[in-house]
Prior knowledge:
The protein has 273 residues and is of the alpha/beta class. The chain has a single domain, classed as Alpha-Beta Horseshoe (Leucine-rich repeat, LRR (right-handed beta-alpha superhelix)), CATH 3.80.10.10. It has helices spanning 15-22, 25-28, 30-38, 50-53, 258-261; strands spanning 2-3, 46-47, 62-66, 85-89, 108-112, 131-133, 154-156, 177-179, 200-202, 223-225, 247-251, 268-272. A twelve-stranded mixed sheet has the order 1-12-11-10-9-8-7-6-5-4-3-2. The chain is elongated.
Amino acid sequence: MQVLRLMLKTVYIPTVAGWLRAFNFQRAIIWLCACTIFSSCGTYRTYTSLDKALQNPAAVQRLKISNKNLGSLPAEIVQLQNLKELIIFRSHIDSLPAEIGKLKELEYLSVTSSRLQKVPPEIGQLQKIRRLSFAYNQLESLPEEIGNLTNLYELKLNNNFLQQLPAAIGKLSALEYLYLGENRLTAIPVEIGNLPGIRYLYIGKNALESLPVSLGNLVTLIELDLAKCGPMTEIPESLCKLRNLEVVYIDVSLLIPGCLQGRMGHFQLIVKD
């Protein structure tokens, strides 16, 4: 990893604080922010067994299942009508029931490091959901209904087998964090340029042939990962419009437009060999 050049935007910030800002201290405290915004740091009693949760379903607000050989999530999950957080980790789940869409109070859904192969269209019924993670699974596609999640703040889809994204992803008007790294994407839909508040976008380690010009519309973007994106050879000049950009990860072989090179004093460009 090589840092080509770094110049702080605000010279009055003390050196140490400036260094932390340049290296994106905000990202390091995402978890703390999540605690404040999403009440996921112990406010709710954590149930670790679905069987026990179903004994008193009205009381269950947080269910965390890990290291279980579930195969699938039973439809009885619908009984947990007050559930706000559902976390499933390393539980060999390959599917979610359609009933998942009936958990109307759900704010955080995480199914990670499992064998999830398909997301039901009913996922679009979770109108209160703020954080959604399907990282480290076997997903090849997503339903268009995911675009109905207009309160979604963070979406993690990294480390899957995704080959394309639905155009409806551009409807996620509240989205700020989007993780798409380490998939099999050959293209990014032009509709991604419709995300009005996106701040962190990670699309590295894919098989992209090009980037949509519409990326230049993401004026709130702070950090962009384009490293090891695939056969594409250049970055669109439209990225020069991203005046809030602080960090960009790219491959050493990518052709950087001149307008972007001229702004390297205002953000950190990290080249990965």
